[in-house]
From TrEMBL:
<feature type="active site">
    <location>
        <position position="131"/>
    </location>
</feature>
<keyword id="KW-0560">Oxidoreductase</keyword>
<comment type="function">
    <text>Catalyzes the NADPH-dependent reduction of N-acetyl-5-glutamyl phosphate to yield N-acetyl-L-glutamate 5-semialdehyde.</text>
</comment>
<keyword id="KW-0963">Cytoplasm</keyword>
<keyword id="KW-0055">Arginine biosynthesis</keyword>
<dbReference type="InterPro" id="IPR050085">
    <property type="entry name" value="AGPR"/>
</dbReference>
<dbReference type="Pfam" id="PF22698">
    <property type="entry name" value="Semialdhyde_dhC_1"/>
</dbReference>
<dbReference type="InterPro" id="IPR058924">
    <property type="entry name" value="AGPR_dimerisation_dom"/>
</dbReference>
<dbReference type="InterPro" id="IPR000706">
    <property type="entry name" value="AGPR_type-1"/>
</dbReference>
<dbReference type="InterPro" id="IPR023013">
    <property type="entry name" value="AGPR_AS"/>
</dbReference>
<comment type="similarity">
    <text>Belongs to the NAGSA dehydrogenase family. Type 1 subfamily.</text>
</comment>
<dbReference type="InterPro" id="IPR000534">
    <property type="entry name" value="Semialdehyde_DH_NAD-bd"/>
</dbReference>
<feature type="domain" description="Semialdehyde dehydrogenase NAD-binding">
    <location>
        <begin position="3"/>
        <end position="123"/>
    </location>
</feature>
<dbReference type="InterPro" id="IPR036291">
    <property type="entry name" value="NAD(P)-bd_dom_sf"/>
</dbReference>
<dbReference type="GO" id="GO:0003942">
    <property type="term" value="F:N-acetyl-gamma-glutamyl-phosphate reductase activity"/>
</dbReference>
<dbReference type="Pfam" id="PF01118">
    <property type="entry name" value="Semialdhyde_dh"/>
</dbReference>
<keyword id="KW-0028">Amino-acid biosynthesis</keyword>
Length: 321
């Protein structure tokens, strides 16, 4: 049994990890670390787990666990690892952004399975991708592999309120977010660096602009991203390339059908829709920002690191209502 520790236990991604590991046949949560909630039952914060766990938040770590998930605020993981040591066999998955870029990576492998599966299997430390970055990269990787990113990429992507984290802010309170919509960090979102890095891994001469407009949506979870660019490649050719690229990746589906967000919420799936309108190629990608965009992808990476089928514990179902 894989013994897991969760650091930063009161947030949304930690709650999702708890739920996923609770139902994982090969893993168990050994401890869940939270300095602000130490001594309290985990169910005081993650109330949906009432009756499923009797774990208590702790402010001490077990350094001998098999794997540690870092669910800390961005910029806090490096500091935590400088102050705490784990056994030589302990593997680490960071769900923050501290190690995603190569110049910051140290020994961390970028954990997008559809790009780096082989490297993830051999890795000790993983930098889990960002949620916007996951959806956008999956939408573009087959084009990059075939050196077909030859124009500016225009992206409009909307995320649910859980993407802002559990701590309330002026733009995440329900009274502000309900029946409302806005954009933020237009053209300068922090995930752009890792997106460009991955595209250049497959297409080294890629040097075009990536124009991303992130939006705050009036829903709690999910990302709906639309991307478009000019291309003269026929849709049938592109569709075959996408289906070939993802044929061995169980959580990604490419289709020419129209898609919607409820097809992926509460799952580890990414569904990609492909359309051609004249000279423009339109891609739509949908994921659950907390699962495929965060904790589910972390479990997928854990499975690969420990030699398990990457689908283990992630056969989750969505609903259409």
């Amino acid at each position: 049994m894989i013994k897991a520790g969760i650091i930063g236990g009161s947030g949304y991604t930690a709650g999702e990890l708890m739920r996923l590991i609770q139902n994982h046949p090969k893993a168990t949560v050994d401890f869940i670390y939270s300095t602000t909630n130490a001594g309290k039952p985990v169910t005081d914060i993650h109330q949906d787990l009432l009756g499923d766990t009797d774990l208590i938040f702790t402010d001490t770590i077990n350094p001998d666990v098999n794997i540690v998930f870092l669910c800390l605020g961005h910029g806090q993981s490096k500091d935590f690892l400088e102050k705490h040591s784990f056994a030589s066999h302990t593997r680490i998955i960071d769900l923050g952004n501290d190690f995603r870029l190569k110049q910051d990576a140290d020994s961390f492998v970028y954990g997008l399975p559809e790009l780096n599966r082989k490297e993830i299997k051999a890795a000790k430390y993983i930098a889990n991708p960002g949620c916007f970055a996951t959806a956008i990269q999956l939408a573009l990787l087959p084009l990059a592999q075939n050196s077909q990113l030859t124009d500016t990429i225009h992206i409009n992507a909307t995320t649910g309120s859980t993407g802002a984290g559990v701590k309330p802010s002026a733009t995440s309170h329900h009274s502000w977010r309900n029946n409302n919509m806005s954009h933020y960090k237009a053209f300068e979102h922090q995930h752009l660096g890792e997106i460009r890095q991955s595209l250049m891994q497959l297409q080294s001469d890629f040097n075009h602009e990536i124009l991303l407009i992130p939006n705050r949506g009036d829903f709690t979870r999910g990302i709906f991203a639309t991307l478009y660019m000019k291309t003269d490649i026929p849709l049938a050719t592109i569709t075959e390339q996408y289906q070939t690229y993802y044929q061995d990746h169980p959580f990604v589906v490419a289709t020419t059908e129209n898609i919607h967000l409820k097809q992926v919420v509460q799952t580890n799936k990414c569904i990609i829709s492909l359309e051609k309108k004249g000279d423009y190629f339109l891609i739509t990608a949908v994921i659950d920002n907390l699962i495929k965009g965060a904790s589910g992808q972390a479990i997928q990476n854990m499975n690969l690191m420990f030699g398990l089928d990457e689908k283990t514990g992630l056969q989750l179902k969505s609903g259409n209502f």
